[in-house]
């Protein structure tokens, strides 16, 4: 398999496409400008998920009634993104799907990907999935029709037992789909790199225990001896090293953060000057859209409390240039976390946690 050749041909065809050329032109014209506009849109087409990771908040999605995005809403957003008025200010380079839920649980997921590809042909489509519902029939369509450009997934253990301990789901189902994807990618010569991240049971427990002084909320009833935990990330690495074959495929260790533990940390007396918002740069150039159209500020805001507006009734441009967004960016940069409220009150849960005992 000559991936170099596949990659080069793919790049050439991208550069020859008028949509990509126009996208690059818009980007170049805005380079150096103080306000570079939006570059990424992250869609949560559904906030449902069929696995239950120990590092994912129990109340993810909050109390929202609408759990899946409608076709009309996606159409409205894409129409705006491809309009001249929008392109004057923004150049969307990346559209991410699979934010805050699994896109492949949405009944119209394939149609949604087709709509994005058609309306935004110059943008790269990235997908984050756990592969459980990315079934062989969907993989066939996605690869044949070139609907995705990149896949990110978390595989947090490589035995049925270690995988279940983190994700409470079947390793065999996930690997069946993942291996099918890799086989089809080779057969069809599709230039779709995949990044596998591993946040192991060992790393998550130790990170939360040493970093936040607690045991994970989802494991409160499970007796755990922290000293007997074994680091199995090398097993994940060894398992995938021989199986992944695209030059841009990667296997990475994920650092734990505590966004799933916000409900148990005591924030009284927290010295906010010691912390920073690690997402503020993304916040400035990316939009996060939930199934009901809420533009929320941050992907670690599981309940979507930091609301900038709603694209059902407003335009992306109105929200982007609105005072609320400007105020929020400034407050986060100035570390006014108690004023911002919501998930930012526990900004200590947004920091990468060390898996080593301090001192
Ligand atoms: S982290 Fe992702 S895969 Fe895991 S439960 Fe949450 S939404 Fe699902
Ligand atoms: S401080 Fe607030 S905006 Fe920043 S990463 Fe944490 S939850 Fe997100």
Element-by-element helix/strand order: HHEHHEHEHEHHEHHEHEEEHHH
Largest sheet: 9 strands, mixed
Head-to-tail CA distance between termini: 50 Å
> What is the 3D shape?
globular
Q: Please count the helical segments.
A: 14
Defining key terms:
binds iron/sulfur cluster; alpha/beta; 9-stranded mixed β-sheet; 359 residues; globular; 11% strand
How would you describe this protein?
- The chain is α/β, with parallel strands linked by helices and 359 residues long.
- The protein is built from 14 helices and 9 strands.
- It has helices at residues 3-16, 18-30, 71-81, 84-87, 109-119, 136-144, 160-167, 171-188, 201-212, 233-241, 280-285, 316-320, 323-333, 337-340; strands spanning 40-43, 94-97, 124-128, 150-154, 194-198, 250-253, 286-289, 294-296, 307-310.
- Strands 6-5-4-3-2-1-7-8-9 form a 9-stranded mixed sheet.
- It is globular.
- The mean pLDDT is 93.
- The protein binds iron/sulfur cluster (SF4) (2 copies).
- Residues 49, 51-53, 56, 101-102, 130 line the site of one iron/sulfur cluster (SF4).
- One iron/sulfur cluster is lined by residues 277-279, 297-298, 300-301, 332, 343-344, 347, 350.
């Amino acid at each position: 398999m000559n991936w170099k050749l596949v990659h080069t041909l793919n790049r050439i065809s991208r550069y020859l496409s008028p949509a990509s050329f126009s996208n690059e032109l818009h980007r170049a014209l805005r380079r150096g400008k103080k306000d570079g506009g939006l570059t990424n849109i992250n869609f949560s087409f559904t906030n449902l998920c069929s696995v239950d990771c120990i590092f994912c908040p129990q109340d993810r999605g909050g109390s929202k009634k609408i759990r899946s995005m409608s076709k009309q809403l996606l159409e409205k957003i894409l129409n705006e993104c491809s309009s001249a008025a929008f392109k004057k200010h923004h150049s969307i380079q990346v559209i991410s799907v699979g934010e805050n839920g699994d896109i492949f649980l949405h009944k119209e997921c394939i149609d949604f990907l087709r709509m994005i590809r058609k309306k935004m042909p110059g943008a790269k489509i990235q997908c984050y999935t756990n592969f459980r519902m990315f079934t062989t029939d969907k993989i066939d369509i996605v690869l044949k029709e070139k609907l995705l450009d990149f896949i990110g997934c978390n595989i947090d253990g490589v035995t049925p037992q270690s995988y279940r301990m983190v994700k409470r789901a079947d390793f065999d189902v996930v690997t069946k789909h993942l291996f099918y994807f890799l086989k089809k990618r080779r057969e069809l010569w599709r230039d779709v790199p995949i990044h596998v991240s591993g946040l192991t049971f060992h790393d998550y427990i130790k990170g939360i225990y040493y970093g936040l002084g607690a045991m994970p909320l989802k494991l409160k009833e499970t007796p755990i001896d922290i000293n007997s935990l074994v680091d199995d990330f090398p097993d994940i690495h060894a398992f995938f090293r021989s199986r992944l074959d695209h030059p841009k495929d990667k296997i990475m260790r994920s650092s734990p953060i505590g966004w799933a533990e916000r409900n148990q940390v005591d924030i009284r007396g927290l010295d906010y000057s010691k912390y920073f918002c690690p997402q503020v740069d993304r916040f400035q150039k990316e939009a996060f859209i939930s199934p009901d159209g809420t533009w929320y500020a941050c992907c670690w805001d599981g309940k979507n409390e930091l609301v900038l507006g709603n694209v059902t009734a407003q335009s992306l441009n109105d929200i982007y240039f609105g005072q609320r967004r400007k105020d929020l960016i400034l407050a986060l940069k100035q570390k006014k976390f108690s004023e911002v409220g919501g998930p930012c009150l526990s900004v200590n849960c947004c920091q990468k946690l060390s898996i080593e005992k301090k001192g």
